[in-house]
Request: fold
Amino acid sequence: MKKWVKMSFSLLLISVLMISLAACNSDSQTKTKKLEKVRIAEVTRSIFYAPQYVALAKGFFKDEGLDVTLTTTPGGDKTMTTLISGGADIALVGSETSIYVYAQGSNDPVINFAQLTQTDGTFLVARNKIDNFSWDLLKGKTFLGQRKGGMPQMVGEFVLKKHGIDPHKDLTLIQNVDYANIANAFASGTGEFVQLFEPTASIFEKQGKGYIVASFGKESGHVPYTTFMAKQSYIKENSDTVEKFTRAIYKAQQWVQTHSSEEVAKAVMTYFPDTDIDIMTTVVDRYKSQGSFATDPILDEEEWNNLQNIMKEAGELPKEVDYKTLVNTKMAQDVMKK
Reply:
């Protein structure tokens, strides 16, 4: 009798465990099925976008039920084309591109919903070491700038004019080199000064190919330099998804803000397999110290107006666009409240 009771109890226990395991497996499958795919097209691969890589590496997107894939589409024009044609759901690119699309009369405008960086991310690199740099040293020299019409180029010209330099008269300005080839062109001997993103600028410095002498980010002030944006129709049809996405970005922004530069570098190192961890730490520290990483996803009106002033100064503003027309901060505000 006792043996039968023990056997019955054992069978009951096994049944309970099997049911529990089946339930856990079912829950796991349900969670996997619930992951919603979101495709991001980023304008370039740069440590400048560290919070985005932190959100991916730390699983913040998955915590929100999102399966995010990331593709690099070099250049603002290519990134925006990818978004508009349906090749991506969300783009990480300069806010000026949304103005260009709107000015062309789009029926489905591209809306900025979460800001990632709030300063320019480029640095002025000189071919030769300069102990006492001043902007006047660029006069009469050849400056290898960024693509015409893009934020780096416009900020570059804005800063030059701020220091009394006419970029089209006081120096030789090269703007016809494709974005992806600018660093190689400088390394090959083109120009005495170049405007570069990180980590390329620091890598060049370590290799003796150039020397960082100034920061365009420090000189230009706060602008919505790179933001996450999507077509108005996508946001309307997928508002919950966009809110979850924004919440993950906000978590990452806070994580970057509260962790050391070395911790941030280690967290995102898989996205920069060919970059030395010491250089990455230096780059993150440089961006953190000048306040390049936005600490929250809110794109405010003052930044939007500063952007348009820079575009106007560069002669690249097709038309002034009201802040509320192309900026939607509802999701950002909601996730910050919660």
Q: What stands out?
A: The two ends are 59 Å apart (CA to CA). Confidence is low (pLDDT under 50) at residues 1-19, 26-32. The CA atoms of residues 154 and 315 lie 9 Å apart.
